[in-house]
Amino acid sequence: MDLTINQPKHLGVTPPIVTAHPTQREIEVTDLLLQELTVQGTFESDDESKRREVVLGKLDGLVKDFVYQISREKENLPEPDAREAGGKIFTFGSYRLGVHGAGTDIDTLCVVPRHVSREDFFTVMYDFLKKRNEVNELTCVTDAYVPVIKMKFQDIPIDLVFARLNLSRVPDDLELRENSLLENLDETCVRSINGSRVTDEILRLVPSIPAFRRSLRCIKLWAKRRAIYSNVMGFLGGVAWAMLVARICQLYPNAIAGAIVSRFFRIMYQWNWPQPVLLKPIEDGPVRVWNPKILFLLESEQTSYIMGIDFI
């Protein structure tokens, strides 16, 4: 007898706390919340949204041209093979999560096949961008923890990071979800890919993406107004805040933003830190994963941990 047949399916490491649907009051509160978020300027205009899509399309075309040139001139690949080598950009961060505002940057990832090097990216790709009239404030930051090309493309701020996969070609339908893609990659490429993989996984682990996005916009605004939205300054960064909100969404899968925001503060205030916030069970894979149980055992005598947030 299969005992899993009647077991309820849910997102997260524990069952939901409440599965009730929104009350009329919660619907009214959510409408008021969205009105206030609009007044506070957390949404971009339709024109800016369309301009971002155009910019990303142009950038994807430039990446394909860049890979083609390296394939032909450096690797001497035949014309058909050079065209098939592909190349693709992925977005991550607040833009991919759908919670970006007017004037914010787009975190983008340039994924290329194995015969294209990081040196090629910071020389040839840089020159490609430098020749574009729409590109200004172009800067290479090669010594960063995650090396990046920064620019404004048609006045849209772009952070472009690089990763090459152990593949002969990068097709347009490539997805980065499979852990096997991380095998035999250097740590810098893994860190670059991680941003896109984390963002997509968060979206897969929430029961309602619209409720998650509206709630996260509110929490982000609250944190920024209190100057506690910055991992550089020792506070939580965008991904960490997103994961905390995602966990509340898992615990209340049918709730809408007005209810989720209220429960977010109640639950996080009472959370038994440093018990980690997990969006799914910890899994083994080809790369090192932060495991709070191991870290506590190894370093509990030297370090005082405050909090842990993870989903893998």
Automatic annotation (TrEMBL):
Cofactor list: Mg(2+); Mn(2+)
EC number: 2.7.7.19
Classification lineage: Eukaryota, Fungi, Fungi incertae sedis, Mucoromycota, Glomeromycotina
One MF annotation (Gene Ontology) recorded for this entry: ATP binding
Organism of this sequence: Diversispora epigaea
Transmembrane segments: 227-246
Top class in the EC scheme: transferase
Family label: Belongs to the poly(A) polymerase family.
Record GO biological process: mRNA processing
Location of the protein in the cell: Nucleus
Protein's name in the database: polynucleotide adenylyltransferase
Residues in Poly(A) polymerase nucleotidyltransferase domain copies: 12-206
Domain Poly(A) polymerase central as annotated: residue spans: 212-294
